[in-house]
Amino acid sequence: MTAVAPSTGALLTHWTLEPSVLLGTVAVTGAYFYAIGPLRRKYNLGPPPTRAQVYTFVASAVLLLVALVSPLDDIGDEYLFSAHMVQHLILATLWPPLVLLAMPPWMAQAIFRQPGAAVLRFFTHPAAALLFFNLDIYLWHVPALYDLTLHNEYAHIAEHLSFMLFGLFTWWPVLSPVASERLSAPLQTLYLFGDAMFMMVLGIVFTFIPTVLYAPYADAPRLWGISAVTDQQIGGLIMWYPGNLPYATWLVIAFYRWFDAGGPENQRIPQQSPTIGPPAG
Description:
The chain has 281 residues and is mainly alpha-helical. It has 15 helices and no strands. The N and C termini lie far apart (71 Å).
């Protein structure tokens, strides 16, 4: 007997109050405010963050809850591939830049002074960041692994954490809190274009492939009369267009910064390390 899809009203009232998500969000938020308050003052780490940075961090926490606790989570897990793509794009391409924009430079420097910083230096190198972020995205969309995440909660958590972690790495060369660690404007333009192309290619695959790739969605009750193939095509278009908006936005910003600096004829690309070293003094 085919399961009946729930009503829209029932879906919109189903919030996934997963303890690990709630506790994790509270822990990260508490760590941020402890770092910018008592810890900063105790060790004289640097000036307080701006009001805009604090608001940006709060926005990142709210966005995280929208992705993982709101009805979007249940719809994406149980019914619609396209909703799952919205969730993944929030975790991989919207949450990471907000976190980096909220981070004061001294906080980044303190993180890179901790044991294991060599690993962070490796993964935030532009070449490694670009490669591993997109490799991570592509691997989790292999049908066998993707289906596993829909049936195994531990695999699902690992998938989401990897999107968030590698998302931070891939945005680091563009939005590092330490200005000297960012790529120059022309290199940012090329870097962001490469990131966008990887996402676009995957979106094109989902948009034009004629068969449903993931069995759980093929067998799921159909919401709002959307067929499984159409749902997959919508998911591809979401990756292709809205999924690339963050990259396109910063690409335009980088291009105009390059243009304001004199363009390719006058732009001087300073020699810079792609990773954070010990702070001066």
